[in-house]
């Protein structure tokens, strides 16, 4: 085992996780230029011809704007505005603006050290928090999950077409749906496993194992859009991560750190939704370092077995999914 190769793979993963930042600002222009050239190669010959063509009703430019214009940057800005500007800002405003202001008013009315003021505040503060979370945070959180899924998929599909061309989906729709359902179950159980290992009595062992779990899980989140478009089944995707785990630990580490900084799970989810589009684009542009691991890290095997058991009990007796096997090199 060459430690230098492992460190290099982790460093390459870290570097590749930020590649999407540069690509984000150039992708739309290059994608739209490609589409224009396919619609009319002679369209972009001169600025005069381009302006004249724009005036007409059935020009390639109008067709592009109406149907196929790439909007990755705008989708990413929408994610930032919706999750950060609307959702996260409202939570921060409530926690650090409205509640302290009401507390200040009560102290002004009853006195700073007044026993009555403290009693009133002990009733008002939890009541306002419950109302705010029930009437605003929870509905908006559910809505954000749905909207983010649509926007993430749009960003991922455009990024894939930008770097690799037309997606190659699985041949059977039922097979694709079964793969997606099983993937959701596996990811949910793996998240539970990541939380459980953190309770190992030796603190640093538990913490490091939890960080490794979350880094691999976030890498799976980011690369899964690309791999599904490539036609890879779940066992292939998991096996590829387990076999090349140093690279994927490095790739998912920044997102793990970003989401673990806040204590609130809601704020952590907001930060994830704001930054995740960058990692989707980075995953499409990445070239993982492979073939350096002598020993795969079989962290997904336990949740595969549990998932098979759960689905067999709930859906019926079907052929269980095999554990991750060594993937074919593509």
Automatic annotation (TrEMBL):
Question: Can you cite an annotated GO cellular component?
Answer: membrane
Q: Which family does it belong to?
A: Belongs to the EI24 family.
The keyword Membrane is annotated on this UniProt entry:
yes
**Pfam families in the record, alphabetically?**
EI24
Q: Where in the cell is it found?
A: Membrane
- What this protein is called in its record is Etoposide-induced protein 2.4
Ranges that cross the membrane: 87-110, 130-152, 173-196, 202-223
Which one GO biological process term can you cite for this protein? Answer: macroautophagy
Keyword terms of this UniProt record: Membrane, Transmembrane, Transmembrane helix
What membrane topology was assigned to this protein in its record?
A: Multi-pass membrane protein
């Amino acid at each position: 085992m060459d430690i230098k190769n492992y460190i290099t793979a982790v460093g390459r993963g870290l570097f590749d996780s930020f590649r999407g930042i540069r690509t984000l600002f150039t992708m739309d222009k290059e994608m739209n230029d490609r589409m224009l050239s396919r619609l009319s190669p002679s369209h972009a010959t001169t600025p005069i011809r381009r302006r004249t063509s724009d005036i007409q009703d059935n020009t390639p430019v109008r067709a592009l704007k109406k149907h196929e214009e790439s909007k990755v940057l705008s989708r990413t800005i929408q994610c930032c505005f919706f999750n950060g500007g609307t959702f996260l800002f409202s939570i921060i405003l409530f926690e650090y603006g409205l509640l302290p202001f009401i507390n200040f008013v009560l102290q002004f009315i009853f006195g700073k050290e007044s026993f009555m003021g403290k009693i009133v505040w002990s009733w008002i503060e939890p009541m306002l928090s419950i109302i705010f979370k029930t009437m605003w945070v929870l509905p908006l959180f559910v809505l954000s999950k749905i909207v983010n899924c649509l926007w993430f998929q749009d960003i991922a599909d455009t990024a894939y077409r930008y770097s690799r061309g037309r997606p190659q989906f699985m041949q059977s729709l039922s097979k694709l749906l079964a793969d997606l359902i099983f993937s959701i179950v596996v990811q949910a159980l793996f998240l539970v496993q990541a939380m459980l290992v953190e309770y190992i009595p030796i603190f640093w062992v538990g913490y490091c194992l939890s960080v490794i779990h979350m880094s691999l899980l976030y890498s799976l989140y980011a690369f899964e859009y690309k791999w599904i478009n490539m036609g890879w089944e779940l066992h292939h995707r998991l096996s590829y991560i387990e076999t090349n785990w140093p690279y994927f630990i490095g790739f998912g580490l920044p997102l793990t750190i970003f989401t673990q900084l806040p204590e609130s799970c809601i704020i952590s989810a907001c930060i994830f939704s704001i930054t995740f589009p960058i990692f989707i684009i980075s995953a499409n542009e990445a070239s993982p370092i492979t073939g350096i691991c002598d020993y795969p890290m079989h962290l997904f095997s336990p949740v595969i077995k549990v998932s098979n058991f759960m689905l067999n009990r709930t859906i019926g007796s079907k052929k269980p999914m095999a554990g991750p096997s060594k993937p074919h090199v593509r």
